[in-house]
Amino acid sequence: MAPSSTTEVTAVAPLGSGARLSVIVITKNEQTHIRACLESVAFAHEIIVVDSGSTDETVEIARAMGAKVTVTSDWPGFGPQKNRALDQATGDWVLSIDADERVTPELAQLIQQEIAQPQGTAYRIARLSEFAGRWMRHSGWWPDRVLRLFKRGTARFNEAKVHESVQTTAPVLTLEGYFLHYPYASLEVFIDKINRYSSDAARQMQAKGKTTSLPAIAGHASWTFVRHYVVRRGFLDGPQGFILACMAASGSLFRYSKLWYYTRQKSD
Known about the structure:
Elements: E1 21-27, H1 34-40, E2 46-51, H2 58-64, E3 68-71, H3 78-88, E4 93-96, E5 101-103, H4 105-116, E6 122-131, E7 134-136, E8 146-151, E9 155-157, E10 166-168, E11 173-181, H5 187-207, H6 214-231, H7 238-267
Parallel strand pairs: 1-2, 1-4, 2-3, 6-11
Antiparallel strand pairs: 4-8, 5-11, 6-7, 6-8, 9-10
């Protein structure tokens, strides 16, 4: 069950001796989020930030907070970029976090306890996400568990340009607690992200030889709305649930429309 309330994120005391924890973050123009994100993981032994050419104050803020920052001149995609950060980690354990996420004090304590006496080598952690002023507890957004904590050397990110994931052959356990997630500051930000991600996803599908048709485009978009709003009970998230289902359907529409367009360009 989703928590009924959230706790303000505050600093947690750094880890003591024993297992060392590296936190890895990739960024671009995240000055709105990066300070609170890094404050929430201040208990780690090292924080590694790999930035892909921010034009705001992201890099300066991260360095001022003690992070080891590397700026890259290219953008290989989310999976490869996160592996670049992972390759710089020196800790026994790695926690991957996005700039728009926060580790709650409760989760910080659970992470420290687990790596001190681990039951496994890889852990999924839930995310509680905010959208338009509401904590989303349906719509497929909760518990939204993602594999983010793992023993270094036992896992890597796949090479996906979007929707990357950690790959491991070890059993994956679930760690209690959750991240706080603030994915979209506005609908404009959401729409911009849908546009960028759909282009990358369409190119990725095209590279795999996938094609589509106009009926399939309509079918994918329609089913995406039904899945989010009805199957995943987005209607229980109020107006935000309806808007979120519409945005998800738009993402599907853009993705498959672009695949159709890219395929047509290639065949001409």
